[in-house]
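To: structure subgroup
Subject: Chain for Friday's discussion

All,

I'm putting the inputs and outputs inline so they're searchable in the archive.
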Amino acid sequence: MTEMPRTEASFEVARRDETYLIEASTRSALRDALADLRHEQGWIGLTTLAYEQRVEVVPDAEVGCRLEGLHLRLDVVVKTPVLAESDARRRKALERTWHPLSVNLQRHEEGHAALAVSEARASFDRLAAAGPFADCRAARRTLLRESLRIRQRQAFVHAHYDRVTRFGNRQSAWTRNAETPAAARVDGAPLSPPDSASASATW
């Protein structure tokens, strides 16, 4: 039996961290600022994901059809707040409240980022191991199913993570009066053709 040509495959993750300023000089002002953020933009800490998938569906006289050149790229952006500079006396007093909150937010968003990479890698491994196929229609059906599956899996695992951590409060040393980040949500981007899929989500 002739050995089927191996599919060249690559998995790539790109991570970027972004920050924004919170202006506050007292504990009560900090709470008000966090409440305003939740009301205005719906989140305090945020992780966004973007997928790019490329793959060739190649007819093969010996096996029917196979996948070649699989490439999956995951872009992760983690956005967290930083406290604007204030005078030393106020900063020291406010830091007792701000430090555990900011550590908690960062830890929670890092959990979202790690889950995203894990699920993307699992999707890549499933596609890399897929085939050969009886025909290229079956190959495209597999790609479409996986495109749907990864979006559903990401939505599920991130929503579950938010529930079991109470949106990070169970991870925090300071939970009393801490504002809760917005619930997980998924942007419903339309599916692209299965040979070249992309999707985005935010948590």
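Points worth raising on Friday:
The helical segments are 27-41, 88-129, 136-164.
DSSP finds three helices and four strands in the chain.

D.
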